[in-house]
Specification:
The structure holds 2 protein chains of 2 kinds.
Chain A (H helix, E strand, L loop, with lengths): L8 E4 L5 E6 L10 E6 L6 E4 L13 E6 L2 E6 L8 E9 L4 E4 L3 E5 L1
Parallel strand pairs in A: 1-9
Antiparallel strand pairs in A: 2-6, 3-4, 3-7, 5-6, 7-8, 7-9
Chain B lengths: L2 E5 L3 E2 L5 E8 L7 E7 L6 E6 L5 E3 L7 E6 L4 E6 L8 E8 L5 E4 L3 E5 L2
Parallel strand pairs in B: 2-11
Antiparallel strand pairs in B: 1-3, 3-8, 4-5, 4-9, 5-6, 7-8, 9-10, 9-11
Classes of the chains: A mainly beta, B mainly beta.
Chain lengths: 110, 117
């Protein structure tokens, strides 16, 4: 069981907007920034969003992140077939003195 | 262009020690922190630990008693040792560069390590 809670699956049709939630506690998301990683099938994870809402160079602005209290969200607008992947949130957990990941959300583009 | 490449045995016997090395190119290992992460087949990501450019380490409490991460600045490499492995340690092991404690901005392609007799 992961310290950060994500829905196991999400889906949408091309062009739609989808959001993926990540729930934590005061000792992780509540007091530290959240990052999001995208893992395309058969590949290594890739940094998608850092420090809650910042996009690395090369990440389309269709991807956005937000954080409020002990929860964070990843939004994908203008959904495309190539967005079909697993998405993971991550944050530092002060109580564990460790980096923790959410369990991952499998996004399906219908 | 920063690149990381994991290397090591793909098969380890139960109770033995898993040893992997990550070779870094395009960045000086002396300038950043470096992490190991693993992913059991069909499951999520688990952070194993990190090492700083100066050699200080921090490990996942769940693995701390069995993990050692070391750094070789002369070879621009860092390494992972996981002792007393069991089938539960079967996973794809990734190495990654860190810019903050949670920001892993470059990852290796990963290497599958199977624990089996």
């Amino acid at each position: 069981q992961s310290v950060l809670t994500q829905p196991p699956s999400a889906s949408g049709t091309p062009g739609q907007r989808v959001t993926i939630s990540c729930s934590g506690s005061s000792s992780n998301i509540g007091s530290n920034p959240v990052n999001w990683y995208q893992q395309l099938p058969g590949t290594a994870p890739k940094l998608l969003i850092y420090t809650n809402n910042q996009r690395p160079s090369g990440v389309p602005d269709r991807f956005s992140g937000s954080k409020s209290g002990t929860s964070a969200s990843l939004a994908i607008s203008g959904l495309q077939s190539e967005d079909e992947a697993d998405y993971y949130c991550a944050a530092w957990a002060d109580s564990l003195n460790a980096l923790v990941f959410g369990g991952g959300t499998k996004l399906t583009v219908l | 262009q920063v690149q990381l490449q994991e290397s090591g045995p793909g098969l380890v016997k139960p109770s033995e020690t898993l040893s992997l090395t990550c070779t870094v190119s395009g960045a000086s290992i002396s300038s950043y922190y470096w992490s190991w992460i693993r992913q059991p087949p069909g499951k999520g990501l688990e952070w194993i630990g990190y090492i700083s450019y100066s050699g200080s380490t921090n490990y996942n409490p769940s693995l701390k008693s069995r993990v050692t991460i070391s750094i070789d600045t002369s070879k621009n490499q860092f390494s992972l040792k996981l002792s007393s492995v069991t089938a539960a340690d079967t996973a794809v092991y990734y190495c990654a560069k860190m810019t903050t404690l949670t920001t892993l901005d470059y990852w290796g392609q990963g290497t599958l390590v199977t624990v089996s007799s």
